[in-house]
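ingest -> fold -> write
write: protein_1
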Amino acid sequence: MKVFDQNMLMLVLVLSFLCNFSRLHGADPTDGFTNIPLTEANFKIQRPYNLPVEARYSFENGVRRMWVYANDKSHSPNSQTQPRTEVRIMGHDYSSGVWQFEGYGFVPNGTTGPSVVQIHGATHESSTIILRIYDGELRYYSGDLIASNMYDKWFKVNLIHDVDEGKVTVFIDNEQKFETKDRGPGDLYFKCGVYAAPKNISYYMESRWRDIKIYKK
């Protein structure tokens, strides 16, 4: 009987390990989600208000390239925010449920300080989560380190926002890297590109994105 109990305990431990390993290392974060079809109408480009779109954005061979300079204007003449060139996902704002952003990002060496992907909106803040690049490190705002050595390579990003549970999970290249509480419900939507931080930024900032998808449960 003791041998049977020991074997059962070992089996439970092995299964638990395999489950956790799969969740953290290589599991598809989109399992159980439904893909939402996107068209070009869902991609709104925010850029310095005094410039044409093509001065800060290109879309070639499936790659959306966005760049901005530290002394550029904001996206609106009435805005006091930092300069940006971002894709704002339109038509799929949300305030409840479980939603997910997926995309492949690329940040060239030398870009430092901008947000490259975010969930905009919260109860008392302007954003739920922002991922910024500082000297090749991907960080939660300017704090917690999420991933290192991110320059000059394509990396896959999955942001999962469970609004009802108040939780945001970050996957990089199918590995769970970070989890945090959100900042309360609101009018929520996804953005990616380059949005300068208030300080410690490079003069030139750029990121590229491809294969952007939105999922929900």
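write: protein_2
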Amino acid sequence: MVVTEKRYRVQMEIAGWPITLAGTRQGIAEVTLGAHSGGQSPETPPWADEAKRQLAEYFASRRRELDLPFHPPRGTPFQERVWKACREIPYGRVSSYRALACRIGSPGAPRAVGQALGNNPLPLIIPCHRVVRADGRPGGFSAGTHWKEKLLLLENARPEFWSWNNEIR
């Protein structure tokens, strides 16, 4: 017999933008930005109220990072390296796909970095909106470029690129 852990879905609207969080009692496993799909769980997980509070603070520019329990996503070793490095990009800064590829030791793989970020199940927690094209344009985003642009504006992201050496590139 296979025992599966109970899953929760929490839908909310923060600053006029719909957000759905899914996960277990232990933490968030998926963040969906945009129109709600599926239903909400009749019960709420222990992290729901804190998630609503932190997201409201983030969208009101009173919080820079989300400190919520989450399940680290599982992917290929490459994807996991990309997601881990993406969490190092600070609030208000951006990295290019190429710089992120170099950071993880794969300088020839900026497109693969973009694909890995497209498979990120935890946008906002793993802030993939902070990765943009080398020419400064937003590039793709799982919830659409309008979300990416809104998040970068919210964070007052600097147009210059952040590097892991704290040098501008």
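write: annotation protein_2
The longest strand covers residues 8-14.
The chain has a mean pLDDT of 90.
pipeline exit 0
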